[in-house]
Specification:
With 327 residues, the protein is α/β, with parallel strands linked by helices. The protein is built from 13 helices and 8 strands.
Length: 327
């Protein structure tokens, strides 16, 4: 029998100095196993974890996936400083408190992966284990590193472009449907991705600017229902909240220099996607030096949205790991 997935607004009063702060949160299962919290990235939503929520709940675990702050049905504070690692991990701690959960396994993807790894450093008493899709346990590369990739031409590198307060969202909020359509796709072979990136003779690492003219690569990833859900969500909130996560990269590194560096002595699972052009599997090569209990797998022919595109393979590694380490 499939475990039902419910969506609830969970109040976390006082977060972001907002008495009405809340996280729209999907939940499934209520078995005796530990809680498993799924953390999405950019530009994604908690709905992206649907196939994991059901599978994990059927194991007897409590599966939880919030729309993170700035996204979907959750609170979206305006200030850039409301989106630091301290705030993002603090939301997850407050969510555990609200649900009366002492400790959880955290599963992250993309930016959500960086947040889950940070949980293990900043709030180790609340973390039983960490699993990540695509995002290795490393320090987040600085804004300068991203800028150097395009020789200072920030329009050609999305992380650098995002640093200009108000610029990226002013453009992206006018092109929500096209962005969702062209970003949420399956992975083509990497040679096609690289050919498109160098189509004008210079490296272009900004899939969001001039998106209407961007090439269409891969196949649609979302069902019609989920596509409309994403379009409606980002039309309602805009992209500022998610972009603000990027605007704290350097301040996060200064405030939390141990994140991505400190050794971890908890069970860790690293699932890499063969065709992810941004978070390459080789970025995780030295993780065994920092993670004492680490399992690693590469998922063939999978792109950045590995948990959706290759859900069976993703769950095929996640489920046995949860059973082995936490049943």
């Amino acid at each position: 029998m499939t475990s039902p997935v419910t969506l609830t607004d969970i109040a976390l009063p006082g977060r972001a100095q907002d008495a009405d702060f809340h996280l729209a949160t999907y939940q499934a299962g209520s078995g005796p196993g530990p809680a498993v919290v799924f953390v999405h990235g950019f530009p994604d939503l908690a709905l992206g974890w649907q196939q994991q929520l059901v599978a994990v709940a059927e194991l007897g675990f409590q599966a939880i996936a919030p729309d993170m702050r700035g996204y979907g049905g959750s609170s979206c504070p305006h200030p850039v400083e409301a989106y630091t690692l301290a705030e993002l991990t603090g939301d997850l701690v407050a969510l555990l408190d609200a649900l009366e959960i002492e400790k959880a396994v955290f599963v992250g993807h993309d930016w959500g992966g960086f947040v889950t790894w940070a949980m293990a450093v900043l709030h180790p008493e609340r973390v039983a284990g960490i699993a990540a899709g695509c995002t290795p346990y490393i320090p987040f590369p600085s804004v300068a590193v991203h800028t150097e990739l395009v020789e200072g031409d920030i329009d050609r590198q999305y992380v650098a472009w995002f640093q200009q307060d108000g610029i990226a969202e002013a453009y992206m909020d006018q092109h929500v449907r096209t962005i969702v359509s062209k970003i949420m796709r399956t992975a083509p072979p990497l040679e096609k991705v690289y050919a498109a990136a160098f189509a004008d003779g210079k490296l272009n690492m900004n899939p969001f600017l001039d998106v209407e003219d961007a090439p269409v690569l891969g196949e649609p990833l979302l069902s019609d229902e989920h596509f409309e859900h994403y379009v409606a969500a980002f039309t309602r909130t805009g992209f500022r909240g998610g972009i603000n996560w990027y605007r704290n990269i350097d301040s996060n590194a200064a405030a939390h220099p141990n994140v991505g560096v400190a050794p971890l002595d908890i069970p860790c699972l690293m699932l890499m996607a063969e065709r992810d052009p941004a978070l390459r599997p080789e970025f995780a090569a030295d993780m065994p030096e920092r993670c004492s209990d680490l399992e690693m797998h590469i998922i063939d022919k999978a792109g950045h949205w590995v948990n959706r595109e290759q859900a069976a393979a993703f769950n095929g590694h996640l489920i046995p790991w949860l059973q082995k380490k936490f049943s």
